[in-house]
Amino acid sequence: MKITLALAAGAASVLASPATGRNQFSESSYSAEDVIKRDFAIIGGGAAGTYAAISLADKNKTFTLVEITNRLGGHARTFTDPARGVNVDFGVQLYLDTPVVRDFFNRLDTPLANFNPAYFGNPNYFDFTKQIRVNNYSQGTLGTDYVAQLDRYPYLENGIDLPNPVPADLLLTWPEYIEKYNLGDSAESIFATPANPGDVLQDLALYMFNDLNHVMLQEDQGAAILNANYDNSELYVKALAEIRDNVLLKSSVTATKRGTDAKSGVKVVVNTPTGNKLIVAKQLILAMPPLLNNTKQFDLDAQEQKILAQINGKYYYGGVVNNTGLENGNGYINVGANTPYHVASLPGVVQFTPSSAPGYFFYWYNTLQAQTKSQVESATRDTIKWLQNQINGTSAVEPEFVDFEDFSPFHLEASKSDIANGFYRKMNGLQGHRNTWYIGSLFVVGTSQVWNNTKNMLPEIIAAAQL
Fold first, then answer.
1. Which of 84, 114, 168, 400 has a Cα at 20 to 30 A from 321?
2. For residue range 279-330, what is the model confidence (pLDDT) as tens digits?
3. Which helix (H) or strand (E) element contains residue 456?
4. Which alpha helices (H) appear in 253-324, and where do they start and end?
5. Comparing C-alpha atoms, which of 52, 68, 73 is closest to residue 14?
């Protein structure tokens, strides 16, 4: 079962209200210590931004990384019990065992271990909406029929580099694709992937193949690794300790001036806890979800606005809960009793998964509309209380919610019509435009691939700064 939260690669929005000031891009408007001159300005400290920062440091390149939260790591979220010191990862879970992954963990002296599927517990299936146990349900595995279809689209393996015109089959919904090619249970099992946000019955085949590609298949087949301390945030804590002098936490971009040629570079105004600072850099690296609302402070031209307006993200939430009354060693998974392909109804909890810390479960929550922490936890509590009755015949135990994260926007996508009209070709064409580069989860989903893609892009980004 694939449990990789490939969101793993996104980062929080790093924007705020536009800065005021007549000469906000003039160095003379700032004290000397508030003007930061670097080769690169990196916006977003998730998987891509942190990997880029460490890699640039290793190449003796200068940078400043701007992150709106008080930590690095994006969707690598870990709860640590303050009394027992045990960890619960409830964001990114697994990585593919590749040289890129091992090298990055080794670089930051962070231990890895092989993944044991038993860690996620013995699966039990329920329809949380209808409140019934679903017996005789089998999630199935992806077989040769799926792999044969996947192999038709090698350009989805490490990104989305579509031919022109876009193959019509990729713009079918996944149920339409299954029916057209008479695929069996193995293709249906993709619906059971827990990190599929939104209404998966409407997801395009393109995104199914891009998400559950050969990298993910290898993870499913036993090539997955994870942090040996069940703490995927450890990597980012160590990264921050190393590059702290070049990181602005709890900071927001308020205005940007980007040149039209390499020599003119970029200027970025950043609001920090100690006041506004001006970053003067050669190149700008956006390692954040580049939705239009997230990028308005980046001095977008008409071409950029039109392309970025086509990107959408989905809503997805997660958290950690203690004192559930659920059985340790068991996972509780939401499936539809009578829905097409047993897809769970929305909104609702995706699953409760036991952790390495006895008593603690992590959960994920899927919805089509934005919800507050209170709404998500209230609905999750109601599901836990119902499960308690199913398991123990009583709902006397009161759950304790100890951590929460909004993973939105999750799985960035474009519409069928925009894809057919060349969205990905146009988006790829923005790389380097006005000294700006886009890295992260727009073209790949899993953290392992985000790191790999970032590694592959950095030589071109570095070369642009040397012009």
1. 114
2. 999 999 999 999 999 999 999 999 999 999 999 999 999 999 999 999 999 9
3. helix 447-465
4. 302-308
5. 68
Q: What does the pLDDT look like over 35-82, one tens digit per residue?
A: 999 999 999 999 999 999 999 999 999 999 999 999 999 999 999 999
Do 195 and 325 share a structural domain?
Answer: yes
Residue 128 has pLDDT above 60, yes or no: yes
Average pLDDT over residues 411-430: 97
Alpha helix stretches (DSSP H) within 120-268: 144-150, 174-180, 185-188, 205-211, 214-218, 234-243
| Segments forming the whole domain that contains residue 136 | 77-229+313-411
Burial class (CB in 10 A: 0-12, 13-18, 19+), 84: exposed
CATH code of 71's domain = 3.50.50.60
Among 382, 439, 442, smallest CA distance to 411 is for: 442
Please choose, from the candidates 205, 189, 108, 197, the residue with its C-alpha nearest in 3D space to the C-alpha of residue 153: 205
| Contact present, 326 and 363 (Cβ < 8 Å) | no
In whole angstroms, what is the distance from residue 449 CA to residue 136 CA? 35
Residues 32, 64, single domain; the answer is yes
Residue range 442-454, pLDDT digits in tens: 999 889 999 999 9
Query: What percent of the chain shows pLDDT beyond 70?
Result: 95
**Domain count across the chain:** 2
| pTM metric for this prediction | 0.93
Q: Can you give the length of the chain in residues?
A: 467
pLDDT tens per residue across span 152-211 = 999 998 899 999 999 999 999 999 999 999 997 777 888 888 888 999 999 999 999 999
The two three-digit tokens of residue 130, written as one number: 């209808």
In the chain, % helix, strand, coil (3-state, to 5) comes to 35, 25, 40
CB atoms within 10 A of CB 245: 6
Beta bridge partners of 79: 88
Nearest to 463 by CA among 283, 305, 207, 326: 283
- Tell me the three state secondary structure of residue 27: helix
Q: Computed over its alpha carbons, how large is the radius of gyration of the chain?
A: 22
The predicted structure's pLDDT at residue 198: 95
Beta strands in 56-136 (DSSP E): 63-66, 78-80, 87-89, 95-96, 112-114, 122-127, 132-133
145/16 same-domain check: no
Are residues 398 and 332 both part of a single domain? yes
Query: How many whole angstroms separate alpha carbon 247 and alpha carbon 62?
Result: 11
pLDDT at 310: 98
Structure-token pair, residue 131: 């409140």
- Pairing mode of beta strands 78-80, 348-354: unpaired
